[in-house]
Design a protein that fits this description.
Layout (H helix, E strand, L loop, with lengths): L1 E7 L1 H9 L4 H10 L5 E4 L1 H11 L2 H4 L2 H17 L1 E2 L15 H10 L1 E5 L10 E2 L2 E4 L1 H10 L1
Helix pairs in contact: 1-2, 2-7, 3-5
Length: 142
């Protein structure tokens, strides 16, 4: 596994835009923007990011829309792109399997998610599945 590679679940992306001072915001502002951690992305994951960030409920917050446009552009330009070849079916929410597929393809060390209901496993083929807090604290202590 490549220790500087992470797959970021969509809920962490949204949370980073809503709460800049929370752990998701700190992950982007202190670890990803600085280049300490690189974000892995696939076409399927990027499409989900885009679809979620363009939902009508966010349109009433112009600052959110502006920040999400900048963040998506940054991910598009600087993310490490992979197209998973394996189909993995281990999560109850079938739509979330794409994050595991991407992490396996990229040989990423981490999947960062705030979704503990669907990501009930903590490790998959050597990939740590962790909360934003666990991920941030680990990377700022080491």
């Amino acid at each position: 596994m490549k220790k500087d590679l992470a797959v970021i679940d969509t809920n962490v992306l949204v949370s980073s835009l809503i709460g800049q001072t929370g752990y998701p915001g700190k992950i982007f502002n202190e670890l990803i923007i600085t280049g300490k951690i690189k974000v892995c992305v696939s076409t399927e994951v990027f499409l989900e990011y885009t679809e979620v960030l363009e939902r009508p409920r966010f349109k009433k917050y112009p600052e959110f829309i502006n920040a999400s446009t900048i963040l998506l552009d940054m991910i598009k330009r600087y993310g490490l792109w992979f197209e998973p070849k394996l189909s993995i079916d281990i999560l109850n929410d079938k739509g979330d399997n794409k994050f595991i597929e991407l992490a396996v393809e990229a040989q990423a060390a981490y999947i960062v998610t705030g979704n503990s209901n669907d990501f009930i496993i903590k490790i998959y083929q050597g990939i740590s599945i962790c909360s934003p807090r666990e991920f941030y604290e680990y990377h700022t202590e080491h």
